[in-house]
Design a protein that fits this description.
single chain, alpha/beta, FAD/NAD(P)-binding domain, 10 helices, 19 strands
């Protein structure tokens, strides 16, 4: 196997977006991923308008259900905002992965199945060792290997984990029921949030976020309006879980290896814009590789994630506090403020 210009470690959506960006820029790219087939993950599956636009720019158009906006619901309080310029789209994670994988293959990205167990940074290259003792040499590497990134750990870039009492987790399940809305509905219970996303004409996905023990059935039972909607609906596929959600990195690059997507750091899923941020990071990481400037990527990463980090962190703090029960009523009383935040995050 000839040495590629770039090795992307991780074949999820952001890793595949990195591979597509690199191929569009003329690089020879190899994606290393231990799993085969469409990769599923616990996520809300709602692509904000900015995320969908980023996919269209690289030639990817996954099937799904139109999303017209976001609604927050808490008992009798409800506030909603419809996107001003263009819709988003609810897309099952496996459908999104298949569409990105097909585009990467169409553009000629190479793929190797393997698990990275070693990474040696040299002056002009990165030497990557796989579990089967295969060694890959490349001038540059981008690690998009997820929330609990092994590469982040190998590079010594992990920061101290969050204390157990503050950790939040997510559980997602699909239900065979026709969507009743073209909005992502966020239902607030006293201890958790349930994100309802239409993903096709016959299916909704529900992602529940909160502290452990996270019992999705108990959370849904505490939301009578949502529970009545789901009464009698069959579940589809398996339940997926993820967490702890907060992950922090000391830096987004070390030597000739860059971190992208959840591997680069993640706050929480509360604002639902992880894919938009991840696709922006993919574009910025490939541009930095082409320029040979990791500081360029660090600056771009901070600019790309600033709103996400600030607004999501603030919302998580409020959700943990005694003001939690006031979040939706306050948003309902200030719909213009709620709408401006949704618009800023969605683009």
């Amino acid at each position: 196997m000839s040495a590629p210009d770039l090795v992307v470690i991780g074949g999820g959506p952001v890793g595949l977006a990195c591979a597509i960006e690199a191929r569009l820029d003329g690089m020879d790219v190899l994606v290393v991923e231990p799993r085969s087939g469409p990769i599923d993950k616990a996520c809300g599956e709602g692509l904000m308008p900015g995320a969908l636009a980023a996919l269209h720019r690289i030639g990817v158009d996954p099937q799904g259900h139109p999303l017209a906006g976001i609604a927050y619901v808490d008992g009798s309080s409800r506030v909603e905002h419809r996107f001003a310029e263009r819709p988003g789209r609810g897309v099952r994670r496996t459908v999104l992965h298949s569409a990105l994988e097909a585009r990467a293959e169409q553009l000629g990205a190479r793929r190797a199945e393997g698990r990275v167990v070693g990474l040696d940074q040299q002056r002009d290259r990165v030497r990557i060792t796989l579990a089967d003792d295969t060694v890959l040499d490349t001038p540059w590497a981008i690690a998009a290997d997820g929330l609990h990134s092994p590469v982040r750990r190998l590079l010594g870039l992990e920061r101290r984990p969050q204390v157990e009492s503050r950790r939040r987790f997510g559980v997602r399940r699909h239900y065979a029921i026709a969507p009743w809305s073209d909005l992502v509905e966020v239902h607030w219970s006293p201890l958790a949030e349930a994100y309802v996303t239409p993903v096709d004409e016959h299916t909704v996905g529900i992602a529940v976020l909160g502290r452990r023990p996270l019992d999705q059935e108990a959370v849904l039972a505490s939301l009578p309006a949502l529970a009545s909607r789901l009464d009698g609906a069959e579940t589809v596929g398996s339940t997926r879980g993820a967490g702890p959600l907060l992950q922090r990195a000391r830096s987004r690059a070390s030597g000739r290896t860059l971190l992208a997507g959840d591997a680069s750091g993640y706050v929480d899923a509360l604002t639902g814009e992880g894919m938009r941020v991840g696709f922006s990071q993919a574009r910025a990481a490939v541009a930095a590789v082409r320029a040979g400037d990791t500081e360029q990527y660090e600056r771009a990463w901070r600019a790309t994630t600033r709103d996400f980090r600030m607004l999501t962190s603030g919302l998580v703090i409020a959700a943990r506090s005694r003001f939690r029960s006031r979040i939706v009523p306050t948003a309902a009383a200030r719909p213009e403020l709620f709408g401006s935040i949704v618009e800023r995050l969605s683009r």
